[in-house]
Design brief:
Bound molecules: beta-D-glucopyranose
Number of strands: 20
Strand content: 5-15%
Shape: globular
Number of domains: 3
CATH class of the largest domain: Alpha Beta
Largest sheet: 8 strands, parallel
Distance between the termini: 17 Å
Radius of gyration: 23 Å
Helix content: 25-40%
Structural class: alpha/beta
Length: about 550
């Protein structure tokens, strides 16, 4: 069989490839540094294309790689249709798409429509043009309150802490739901709408397969005067008419985007990052007339607990059945404490919702961290996720079993949430964004040939790709094997629960007989005769040990 045919075999070439894809999130500045400036870049991704192929994922999602002052890790975009020169060029981007496509891997890019960078030419124009100008209409400028307008128009807080308003030289204020360097765009403005359509076509024309939409639920706003206070806002139900969050009218934007996605063959896909109040509200983003899919963060904020997992899985599958979308599963991303660490800490405390964005807060001091237990439970949860109907999003480094990095001094931190007082474990999000270790030694463990932009702790050596690739019992070997088997076992998007007689053990079967058993407890769970059909995970004396998952495939299912 030729190489090309092999690739065809491993890739779902249908228009619905995304429904059950395993998508790997790359945080480009921390993946691989080819030019030795300490920042990961696009040629770095190309240099690791074989690694991505061998991992066995179906697609990558790239966090922003656009020109940016990095006030928020690249989520402050200065130009939506270019590559940050520190990360490469548009030609490098094209080479990357080609390299990944050749290996059967699709490419999803991040679109950040709620806000631009303050360095975006539109915002610079708005500052120069002054109050009352047409240029200011593309953003949300208001006069201040109090004597001489010297106080912010409202007492609203930004997601990263501090006021949601910033004053400019001539005395007006602009709204920023996140950092001050991220002014919110005015989505009532036709030019804003038009420009994003141009951006979607720009990347689609370059061969991008799909888009991840940042804070998709916050674009439209009702800023009719008088504006409510923070306390009043908190009391307004999130039922589609809230002034700032998850408004029904946001879906008019996505209906227009869908028409653009459908201009392409196959249609471009999209996944919404929408931290909304219920699975029903989330489903609107996932509709076929809208973005098509939405992140489901329910398991990410759940404890490692069988009953919580079961009810979340059941609810979300029912929801995707109702909408015709497929559900998504996520345990880690660039915004939350890595799940190997969360599961190694005493029961989690939650920060709840902040400006519509829920952040996970790991409870307990670092000295209570049980690394081994956390990693064991992380493996169990990931294997369960990969057996579920729907798509699974993996975050770079979780395939190495990386823990959150706590050893970053205040002067080395980059996350605006750390500096602006939003809690985020008191540490911010840098700990899950530390550059990957590729080798056990070298100035940045093979990330590049110089020190990395965030400090890597010495224990990264044990987690290096070269170390784990050579060890059949490593996390990397487990992910590779799981993803390889998943391709062969994948089947219709359904499951049936099998009662286990134990509240702490979940078992389900997919339509072709593939079964997943997760023991969330500590007592072994006996498998009887099925122990002979275990194809993934460890069985001890015919039983599934505590904190672990096995996959069962009856003879014949895998040749
Ligand atoms: C992204 C964050 C970012 C924020 C503002 C989020 O939801 O995932 O990393 O800070 O949007 O763009």
């Amino acid at each position: 069989m030729t190489h090309a045919l092999l690739l065809e075999n491993r890739t779902d070439t249908t228009a619905t490839w995304w429904r059950q894809a395993a998508v790997y999130q790359i945080y480009p500045r921390s993946f691989a540094d080819a030019n030795g400036d300490g920042l990961g870049d696009i040629p770095g991704i190309v240099s690791r294309a074989d690694y991505l192929r061998d991992l066995g994922i179906d697609a990558v999602w790239l966090s922003p790689f656009y020109p940016s002052a990095l006030a928020d890790g690249g989520y402050d975009v200065a130009d939506y249709r270019d590559v940050d020169p520190r990360l490469g060029t548009l030609d490098d981007f094209d080479d990357m798409v080609a390299a990944l496509h050749e290996r059967g891997i699709r490419v999803i890019v991040d679109i950040v429509p709620n806000h631009s960078s303050d360095l975006h030419e539109w915002f610079q124009e708005a500052l120069a043009a002054g109050r009352g100008s047409a240029a200011r209409e593309r953003y949300i400028f208001r006069e201040g309150a109090g004597p001489g307008g010297s106080e912010p128009p409202t007492d609203w807080t930004a997601a990263f802490g501090g006021s949601a308003w910033e004053r400019v030289e001539d005395g007006q204020w602009y709204l920023h739901s996140f950092a001050p360097e991220q002014p919110d765009l005015n989505w009532d403005h036709p030019e804003v709408r038009e420009d994003f359509l141009t951006t979607l076509r720009f990347w689609s024309d370059r061969g991008v397969d799909g888009f991840r939409i940042d804070v998709a639920h916050m674009l439209t706003k009702d800023l009719t005067e008088p504006l409510p206070s923070k306390d009043e806002l908190a009391l307004i139900p999130q039922d589609g008419n809230h002034p700032l969050n998850d408004r029904d009218d946001v879906h008019e934007i996505y209906a227009e985007w869908r028409r653009v996605f459908n201009e392409y063959d196959p249609p471009r896909t999209a996944v919404a990052e929408a931290w909304v109040s219920t699975p029903e509200r989330r489903a609107r983003y996932a509709s076929a007339e809208g973005l098509g899919q939405a992140f489901n963060f329910d398991l990410l904020v759940a404890d490692f607990d069988a009953q919580q997992f079961r009810s979340i899985i059941t609810d979300n599958l029912a929801q995707s059945d109702a909408t015709g979308s497929s559900t998504t599963w996520v345990l880690s991303n660039h915004d939350v404490t890595r799940h190997a660490t969360r599961y190694g800490l005493p029961p989690l405390e939650r920060e709840g919702e902040k400006q519509g964005t829920a952040w996970v807060k790991a409870g307990g001091p670092a000295d209570q961290l049980d690394r081994e237990g956390g990693l064991r439970r992380a493996h169990a949860a990931t294997l369960l996720l990969l057996g579920l109907p729907g798509s699974t999003y993996l975050y770079q480094g979780e395939e190495l079993g990386l823990q959150e990095v706590a050893e970053i001094g205040p002067e080395q931190r980059q996350d605006p949430a750390f500096f602006r007082g939003a809690d985020f474990d008191g540490l911010g999000r840098d700990g899950c964004r530390v550059p990957l270790p590729w080798t056990a030694s070298g100035p940045s463990f093979g990330f590049g040939d110089t020190e990395a932009h965030l400090p890597q702790p010495s224990w990264f050596a044990e987690y290096a790709v070269e170390v784990e690739a050579a060890d059949p019992s490593s996390t990397l070997s487990l992910y590779r094997e799981a993803l390889r088997l998943r391709r062969r076992l994948q089947t219709e998007e359904r499951l049936e629960w099998i009662e286990t007689g134990r509240a702490d053990v979940l078992r389900f079967a997919r339509p072709n007989g593939w079964q997943i058993v997760t023991n969330f407890g500590s007592e072994p769970f006996d498998l009887g005769a099925d122990a002979a059909d275990v194809v993934l995970g460890t069985v001890v004396d015919g039983a599934v040990p505590g904190d672990s998952t096995v996959w069962i495939a009856p003879a014949g299912l895998i040749d």
